[in-house]
Amino acid sequence: MGISYRDALALLQHTAAGILKDRGPPTEKLPVDKALGRVAAEHHASPICTPPKDTSAMDGYAISSGATVDATVEMPVTFVVQGTNAAGDDPIELPNEPIDGCYPCVEIMTGAQFPISTSNTPFDACVKIEDTVPFGAKSEFQSRHRFVLTRPVRLHANRRFAGGDMQKGDVIVRKGEVVRSRHVMGLASVGVPEVVVRRRLRVAVWTTGNELTRDTDGVRKSSQIFDSNGLFLAAALREAGVDVDLKGILQDDVQSLEEALDSAEAATWDLIITTGAVSKGKFDFIVPALERLRAQVHFHGVAIRPGHPMLFATMDRDCGPVPFFGLPGNPIATAACFRFLVVPFLRQSLDQNPEQPELAELSTKNGGRDMFLASPSHLDCFRHGTVLTGPDGNKMIELSQNQSPAVISQYATSNCWAHIARGCTGESGPIMVQCYPHTPLID
User: Fold this and answer.
1) Which domain of life does the UniProt lineage start with (predicted)?
2) pTM, whole model, 2 decimals?
3) Cβ atoms 169, 46 nearer than 8 A
4) Which DSSP symbol is given to 423?
5) Do 387 and 396 touch, CB atoms closer than 8 A?
6) The domain at 358-437 falls in which architecture?
7) Is the pLDDT confidence value at 427 over 80?
8) How far apart are the first and last CA of the chain?
9) 3-state SS, residue 116
């Protein structure tokens, strides 16, 4: 049956750690706004504290909270506005002492610095505009006006402290994380101009089979079928942040693959993927072609279902070893092998941690339990389905009813894979399986 899934993963991760790091510059610097979707090659931390100074959390008035301790409707406290601080202004400096029974305050806008008291009593809180009661009319001079407060204002109300958002050295995006829009916001807010990211991998994809065509203009032989594997792999690789060269459809002979892999362009690829022609049939030419190219086949056959004929090899080139995945030709087998063997290889090559699945209960709907019990215990089996969240917050997977590796329709409407691990019996109680969402592939 071939190598176990666990051993295949270990071999792939070990190979990825060594091969791709030696192929050209592993990293590059990009402006923050150009780094979206790329994998960070190192931690990126804040070079400053934010906010740099104490600021207001909303529009209102900077006051001394101590002046309001005894404020009531019967005994309101009166404040007189001494000026305005907008965001970006230098803070106003003034004494914070009552004059003629009125306490000074400063109109303050969201994000503005608190005024500086030149006396012993600080301006330590912001009262919202809607919590104030107007008192009299505005003065014609200096646009000053008064208001009263009829209840206490707590210390530091609506005040953002310096460093309350980020401290210098706080990590915003970690090595191995995909840069998302939330990271861009964080990096931009502290003035980080560039991000060091992993170089995009470049992958070549071929499909094989005389029966395949990509012509959609209606001119095709009745014996031909549309090539779904090539377009699927190109799309899935792009979802994983990879640059894709979607190549042609190879004819069922050894020479076609030899010529394709012997081109000068082959030196630019970090990885090569083919689908089909990896089994033991008369027209399964991938292995003979690799032998003639003196490639090292690390495994051919994995104890999984679907996808057991797949192989992994490396080919010696002037630029170093080039990894090669030969995936099966059945579409769902192609999808399973890509998700559970190629994606872990890509993650390792980008210095990402192995994906951690969630546990979900297997639903009995659509014959899920019977399907589980029919899965050979000596294999790792991958079944597509739909993950749902129940009223109790727990996840449950309903397997697609038809799991044939040649049936695309139900895979196309699924949203996850269920991994039924080797040796899992589910003899009693609910059956728990590992749940892998279809996306994101790289996170």
Assistant:
1) Eukaryota
2) 0.83
3) yes
4) T
5) yes
6) Beta Barrel (2.40)
7) no
8) 32
9) strand
